Amino acid sequence: MATIIDTGASTATTGSQTLSIPILSPAGNLILAEFGLATVTSGVVLLSASIGFQTTLGVPSVVFTLYRDGQPIFNMGSSGLAILAIQPITIAYMDRTVPAGYHAYSLGVANNSLNILLNAASVTGPVTFSGTSIG
User: Fold this and answer.
1) Which end of the chain has less Cβ packing within 10 Å, N or C?
2) Domain of life of the organism in this record (predicted)?
3) Domain 4-134 falls in which CATH fold?
4) Coil vs helix vs strand at 82
């Protein structure tokens, strides 16, 4: 039987249009949320995130990245919709290769467009990120 070892969460905002944070180029990856979580040998971590992003110019291509201890473990891309349209993003990921110990998890986003001056986007909310360690 599985046992919950630890839980963690980071919530910048739960509402839509409550933020306006420009999404930067890949070199300027923006960390939106982070938390710490204890794990055990042969355990897994269930991660989930909800993010709202809005196209402000062109058709941006953004990449959302989940990190464990500063190293990327999962990427998910999304393209913008019509200008000023808000697009909700939901991420669910099971981290199966977690060593026992205490780990820092974070959620980042970057604009992966070829020309970010003509393809711009921003985070508008919600921004929630949570995890559950199971052993």
Assistant:
1) N
2) Bacteria
3) Jelly Rolls (2.60.120)
4) coil
pLDDT tens string 65-88: 999 999 999 999 998 878 888 889
What's the predicted TM-score (pTM) here?
Answer: 0.92
User: Can you tell me the distance from the alpha carbon of 22 to that of 118, in angstroms, rounded to the nearest whole number?
Assistant: 13
On whether the CB atoms of residues 8 and 131 are closer than 8 A, the answer is: yes
Question: Could you read off the pLDDT of 7-22 as tens digits, one per residue?
Answer: 999 988 877 778 889 9
Question: Which of 130, 116, 54 shows the shortest CA–CA distance to 85?
Answer: 54
Chain mean position to CA 78: 12
Region of residue 69 (phi > 0: left; psi between -120 and 50: alpha; otherwise: beta)? left
Q: What is the DSSP string of 17-75?
A: TS--EE---GGGPEEEEEEEEEE-TT-EEEEEEEEEEEEEES--EEEEEEEETTEEEEE
Q: Which of 8, 131, 116 is nearest to 56 (CA)?
A: 116
- List the one residue out of 9, 104, 95, 110 whose CA is nearest residue 50: 9
Question: Cα 45–51–55 angle (5° rounding)?
Answer: 145
